[in-house]
Amino acid sequence: MKVSYFVFLTYLLVTILSGCANTNATLNKPAQKNTISIDQQNIQNRKSMAVAYFKEQNYAAALKQWKILNTIYPDEHEFKNRIQVLEALIHRRAKIHIITGRKALAKKEYKTAETAALKVLAMNPTHRTALSMLRKVEKYREAQKQQTKPQIRSDKQFATRETNTPTSGVDTVKVSGRF
pTM of the full predicted structure? Predict the structure, then answer.
């Protein structure tokens, strides 16, 4: 009987202490009302920013906002639909700019090709074709720099040896070229 009384007291003590621990934990929690309203305000702000970016045709920034909202609320179908629409729109716009850039490269209009590539990269910073196009423009610019640099002549080209007469034995040096 002493053993069962001891077990009962231990059980009662553990139950009381665990109840105290839960009470303290709930007292330290912030109020749920404030947290929910802040989240709703955050959602509204991000939605507003996404719509404003879309109206400004800044599709990459709008996509970023919708992706953030989708990360916070992955079950929200509105966010997923908007992401799909924006990704398709960005893909179409990028394709148009890439075609423009390729035509410009073929015509050797390198500034136009560079602008087209940069527009694509503003929407998709990892677009391989746009990066390749920029590399081609850079190669062209490097080639242009090489052609416009003054050619450095060797010492043999700067000074040429002329002999006045074979009998005089006096050599003169004629200097040509620019210094």
Answer: 0.56
